Amino acid sequence: MDADLQTHIAFYLTGKRPGTGLDAPEGLQLRPALFAAYRDLSALRYDFPLVLVDGPSPGMFAEPLSGLIDSILDKVAHGTEGARIRKHLLLLEQEIRKRVAAGASGLFSAVWDHSAATLGQDDTLMADSLLRARTNRHVDGELVDCQSALPAQLLGHAWSLTQAQRAAHFGRDLQRLVLKLSDILKADFVNSDAGKSAESLRSAFGSGPKDNFDFEAMSRILGRSTARKSLSPSRRSRVTQLLSTLQSQQFFAPPDAKAGTAYAFVFDSCSAALQAYRERLPRLIALARAMAIAELEAKGEYNEARHDPLFASFGENGLQASDLALFPDYLVRMNIRDLTGAEQSALSEILAVDLPVKILIQTDDVIEESPLGNGNGIGIGTPGLCPAQSATGQHGDGSERRFCAAIARLQSVPASRADPARTRLLRPGPVQRLFGRSCQHG
After folding, report:
1. pLDDT higher than threshold 70 for residue 423
2. In angstroms, rounded to a whole number, what is the distance separating the alpha carbons of residues 10 and 211?
3. From the CB of residue 441, how many other CB atoms can be counted at a distance below 10 Å?
4. Are residues 226 and 191 in contact, defined by beta-carbon separation less than 8 angstroms?
5. Residue 208 contacts by C-beta under 8 Å, 6 or more apart in sequence?
6. Phi and psi dihedrals of 391, rounded to 5?
7. Which residue has better confidence, 268 or 209?
8. By the 8 A CB rule, do 335 and 363 touch?
9. Pair type for strands 50-57 and 432-437
10. What is the longest distance spanned by two Cα atoms in the chain?
11. Out of 29-43, 191-205, 226-240, 274-288, least confident range
12. Residues contacting residue 199 through CB under 8 Å, at least 6 positions apart
């Protein structure tokens, strides 16, 4: 048989290119023959692009452009001008979709304004319709299309919303505890001889008419009349150390902190995330311990005889899920082609001990079997099965442990699967695995 024919048959049967007889298809912008009739998907009305909703919007984190346009139409397309407004707003939606498909990116509001300016440039009625619609556009965020980067963008956005909620909660608790502990030390200083000195009284007076007061006399009076009950040296040392630990933490950046002062929690490999977790674990335990002790100190309930032995062994066997839920989850976004050797070992360890890690593993081949194999509890899926059918892993508490879908279905999977998965992405919880399948469109 002719060698070239054998090469073509082998490629047809296996999808692999033996030898050098066939040209590499990469970079040729080829599309499946079955999709030949759908070269311009932007002419159709479908869910994409998506808007990654900014800020805390209850029940929303990624909305389809078509859905947002429909919600605006429900508000403005009424009366005798309703048909005209509907037609113009649907034209705007199509223009936005074309721009995003052609590579445009940015905020929904910015792409909207640029598209509206183009459409309404020579059409006053169009400009009027779009202006009315714009006043009812209350959602903004990054526009993303159905492409290979979507899983990382979508999961990254959901993860960032979760971390923002945790950071806000943690920041309030931290600020409250720092203020309480600072007040304890300040009250102790005010009650000390140094705090009652004339110089301290003068500096604490502020910018008023200091010459009208005799601070030396005030110091003598306070020294004779105020009962002295200072902190014990051990408590003063403990409170000072707690303040130092709380104020130097790097798990959440303070609102006024410079970039790079807090730890990074987004990684492109399981081994890097696992190494970071191990390195930071002693500091994480120390911070969780400090938070727990600070709560007792703030209430005046810390008892050295009872609590010192208890907290001496704090975290020896790791932290409980309730403690870990106070701190950021780790996020790993990677392609399955990088899941080899050490990466598989790191992934297995993460899954085995349920570390606070959310993992996106993306595969660009909908047929090829997972390198992890099947039957081990962490396989991505069985060849030939719908991705949703292969997402059957469970946590011990019965919750889903992985979610598997094609990119195009991340937004439109049935509610029975989508809602729990999104809920778990947006709230503290155990390890969440999202396995995506890449399916770019033309």
Report:
1. no
2. 99
3. 16
4. yes
5. none
6. -90, 80
7. 268
8. yes
9. unpaired
10. 113
11. 191-205
12. 215
| Lowest mean per-residue pLDDT among 53-67, 73-87, 423-437 | 423-437
Q: Which residues pair with 52 in a beta bridge?
A: 62, 142
In angstroms, what is the C-alpha Rg of the chain? 30
> How far is Cα 128 from Cα 108, in angstroms, rounded to an integer?
19
pLDDT of the residue at 408: 66
Q: 309 vs 188, which has greater pLDDT?
A: 309
Q: Tokens representing 151?
A: 């899983």
> Is pLDDT at 302 greater than 80 in this prediction?
yes
**Can you tell me the distance from the alpha carbon of 207 to that of 65, in angstroms, rounded to the nearest whole number?**
58
336 neighbors 362 (Cβ within 8 angstroms): yes
Between helix 270-299 and helix 150-190 the angle, nearest 10°, is 30
pLDDT value at residue 97: 93
pLDDT at 428 over 50: no
User: What's the order of all strands across the beta sheet hosting 50-57?
Assistant: 60-64, 50-57, 141-144
Over the chain, what is the mean pLDDT? 77
CA dist., res. 98 & res. 115, Å (int): 10
Q: Are 198 and 221 in contact (CB under 8 A)?
A: no
Alpha carbon distance 300, 114 (integer Å): 60
Residue indicated by tokens 């809920």: 423
Contacts 24+ apart (CB under 8 A), 417-422: 417/388, 417/391, 422/61, 422/158
Instruction: Note the pLDDT of residue 149.
Output: 87
- β-strand partners of 406: 437
What does the alpha-carbon distance between residue 198 and residue 193 come to, in Å, rounded to a whole number?
A: 10
Residue from 314, 313, 174 nearest 242 by CA: 174
Torsion of CA 187, 193, 198, 201, to 10 degrees: 0
In one letter, which amino acid is 370? S
